[in-house]
Amino acid sequence: MPERSKGVARMTYTRYEPVVAGPLLDAGDLAEAVDAYMAAQPATRRWDVETSVDWSRADAGRLTEGQRSAVRFVTFIEDHLPGYFALYQRHFPLNEDTGPAAFAHNRELYHFTVRWAFEEDTHARALARYQLESGMTDAASLRAELTAEGRKTFTMPYDQPVQYFAYALVQEKATQIFYSRLRGAVGDPVLQALLTRLSRDEARHFVFFADVTSRYLREYGDTMVEPIREVIASFRMPLAETIKGYWRWALRISEVAHFDHTDAYGHLATVINRAVDAKSDRLAELTRFINQCRTVAA
Predict the structure, then answer these.
(1) What are the pLDDT digits (tens) for 120-148?
(2) Radius of gyration of the chain (CA)
(3) Beta-carbon count within 10 A of 158 CB
(4) Cβ atoms within 10 Å of 82's Cβ, excluding its own
């Protein structure tokens, strides 16, 4: 998503992908978070691409050129899922080389990631379907575009489990905010309804990652400060380093939806403040750093 940073230090992503070796939550603790997530959306509230949207009414003629560009942009972001999901498979493995405690943790996380992957894949398919049904593009052209981006290597420069959860917390909240603001800008009722569904899903994803990040903070306290600080200092939305012309495109999207991904930083600060009753000086400093990044970037 867009970035308007002025004076915030940037860390460049590289092809190097570190081994994740930091502390893990107890499997039972993680299981509680997963169970809460699963219970948050009963089957009666789930939706699918094939039957939940009246695609016959989709009309890209109701959109401005900038709004069409925003739809194309987020389709790329959502469609990156295979590479993103593969990160969790690599860094939270389920094989005979994984010790019992880590295996138990990773198995509980897997229950979440397969549901999460399904829901994010639904988002990718729905946005692609909108492009096709609304007349924005044709199937062959869209598939070629998505293939060109999807084949690029996707990595993250993190070596602690909590960093993957803190990163996803910010990403999911940023995406939720973006969908909500784009919904208020577009003129096609079909796209408005679709963006409402996407925003609600991202809100539930955010709650899960906020829950898990909070549990890490309660369990490990000050040792989580530097890993989380590194996430904020180096934060990029997915594909920021691979999509050609990303920053130029992102700035245009920012103008369409009045959005900046650092709008999500305050939510991370709130999670930190609520997670620990007696905050140390280091945790307080982390909160100030996050809020400063938001202020500078704004």
Answers:
(1) 999 999 999 999 999 999 999 999 999 99
(2) 19
(3) 21
(4) 13
Cβ neighbours, 10 Å, residue 163 = 24
Nearest one of 124, 89, 115 to 37, comparing CA atoms: 115
Go through 54-73 and write b for each residue having 16 or more CB atoms within 10 A of its CB, e for each that does not.
eeeebebeebeeebbebbbb
DSSP string, 223-239: GGHHHHHHHHHT---TT
Q: What's the CA gap between 280 and 100, in Å, rounded?
A: 33
- Reported as a pLDDT band with limits 50, 70 and 90, residue 203 is very high
88 and 165 in contact (C-beta within 8 Å)? no
In the chain, the domains with their CATH numbers are 27-41+57-297 (1.10.620.20)
Cα dist from 139 to 73, 75, 124, 132, 181, whole Å: 16, 14, 14, 7, 27
Nearest to 236 by CA among 295, 177, 179, 158: 158
Structure tokens of 239?
A: 């594909």
Query: What are the φ/ψ torsions at residue 17 (nearest 5 degrees)?
Result: -125, 105
Would you say the pTM of this structure is higher than 0.90? no
